[in-house]
Specification:
- The chain is mostly beta strands and 202 residues long.
- It has one domain: SOS response associated peptidase-like (hypothetical protein yedk fold).
- It contains four helices and ten strands; from the N terminus they run ββαβββββββααβα.
- The N and C termini lie far apart (63 Å).
Length: 202
C-alpha cells in the first residue's frame, strides 16, 4: 500500500492532499476516515519508528521502540481508490494520539501502537464496531517506549541498512553537527591582456 490515504470519493488523486495521519480524537467525524474506521482497519507491523527534533543545525532523528524490544502493530486505516478506467490504488494512513509525558519530549503526538493481544479485535470489522475499538485508540503508556538518537543518514531514502537503527556515537554526532567547511573564496580572473590576434581562430 502507499502511505497517504485517498478516500474512494476523490475524483483526481493528483489534486488531493495525501492524508498520512488520522487523529484518533476526530476519526469518526472526518469524511475521509469515517468509513475506513468502520470497515477497513489494518495493521502496519513495526519494531520502531523515527521522529525528528529541532536542533541548532537542522533536525536530529531519533529511533523510538518498545522498551522490551518486542514488535508491535501501528493502527492503520486503508482505502482502495478506483479510477475511471478501472485502475486501483491501495492507500493507508496511520492513526495517531496525544503523546504521554515522556514521548512528548520528542513530539506531542504518537502513532497508536497495538500489541498482539489486540490485533484480532482491531482487525475484526464485523464483530467490533467503532465503539468496540475506541479504547484502543491511545498512545503508549509512559515508560513503555524508549528512544535513542541515530545518524542523519536516515534522512535519505537511498540509505537502507541496519546501521540506521543503532545509537549514534558522540564522535559521529559531532561530525554531523559541525558546520560545513568554508568554501574557498573565488579567485578573481586576471585582467585580460591586449589581444594581439595570436592563437585566435577569428
Amino acid at each position: 500500500m502507499r502511505w497517504g490515504l485517498i478516500p474512494a470519493w476523490v475524483k483526481d488523486p493528483r489534486k488531493f492532499t495525501l492524508l498520512i495521519n488520522a487523529r484518533s480524537e476526530t476519526i469518526e467525524a472526518k469524511p475521509a476516515f469515517k468509513n475506513a474506521i468502520k470497515r477497513r482497519r489494518c495493521l502496519v507491523p513495526a519494531d520502531g519508528y523515527y521522529e525528528w527534533q529541532a536542533a541548532a543545525r537542522g533536525k536530529r532523528p531519533f529511533f523510538i521502540h518498545r522498551r522490551d524490544g518486542h514488535p508491535f502493530g501501528l493502527a492503520g486505516l486503508a482505502e482502495t481508490w478506483m479510477g475511471p478506467n478501472g485502475e486501483e490504488l491501495d492507500t493507508v494512513a496511520i492513526v495517531t494520539a496525544p503523546a504521554s509525558a515522556d514521548l512528548a519530549q520528542l513530539h506531542h503526538r504518537v502513532p497508536v501502537t497495538l500489541m498482539p493481544g489486540d490485533f484480532d479485535r482491531w482487525l475484526d470489522c464485523r464483530a467490533f464496531d467503532v465503539d468496540g475499538v475506541k479504547e484502543l485508540l491511545t498512545g503508549p503508556g509512559e515508560g513503555e517506549f524508549v528512544w535513542h538518537e541515530v545518524s542523519t543518514r536516515v534522512n535519505s531514502a537511498a540509505n537502507d541498512d541496519a546501521q540506521l537503527l543503532l545509537p549514534i556515537s558522540e564522535q559521529a554526532r559531532a561530525a554531523e553537527s559541525a558546520p560545513p567547511p568554508a568554501k574557498a573564496a573565488a579567485r578573481k580572473p586576471a585582467p585580460a591582456s591586449p589581444d594581439d590576434g595570436q592563437g585566435s581562430l577569428f
